[in-house]
Amino acid sequence: MMFTVIARRVPLTRLVLSRGYTSSVREGSVAQSKGFSKKEKAHEDEYARRHEAELLRKLKTEIEAKKEELARLQEKHDEVNSKQ
């Protein structure tokens, strides 16, 4: 059993005419001015810096907790070794 595929060509004039109805501004887009984009980028950069600073604070507290745990374990190790 064989199927035959028939392709239909769309006239070029239809494509050109349909393009004339689109606007240069996309729906849902925001202001296109340079000042707005700079301000928006500045806000995004500020958010990223604050987020990274918060992550660094969390990591530093985790490191301090691990250092304290390591010190306690080292003391226990030294006690066990000194008793032997």
TrEMBL record:
<comment type="similarity">
    <text>Belongs to the ATPase inhibitor family.</text>
</comment>
<dbReference type="InterPro" id="IPR007648">
    <property type="entry name" value="ATPase_inhibitor_mt"/>
</dbReference>
<comment type="function">
    <text>Inhibits the enzyme activity of ATPase.</text>
</comment>
<keyword id="KW-0496">Mitochondrion</keyword>
<dbReference type="Pfam" id="PF04568">
    <property type="entry name" value="IATP"/>
</dbReference>
<feature type="compositionally biased region" description="Basic and acidic residues">
    <location>
        <begin position="37"/>
        <end position="48"/>
    </location>
</feature>
<dbReference type="GO" id="GO:0042030">
    <property type="term" value="F:ATPase inhibitor activity"/>
</dbReference>
<feature type="coiled-coil region">
    <location>
        <begin position="49"/>
        <end position="83"/>
    </location>
</feature>
<keyword id="KW-0175">Coiled coil</keyword>
<protein>
    <recommendedName>
        <fullName>ATPase inhibitor, mitochondrial</fullName>
    </recommendedName>
</protein>
<dbReference type="GO" id="GO:0005739">
    <property type="term" value="C:mitochondrion"/>
</dbReference>
<feature type="region of interest" description="Disordered">
    <location>
        <begin position="28"/>
        <end position="48"/>
    </location>
</feature>
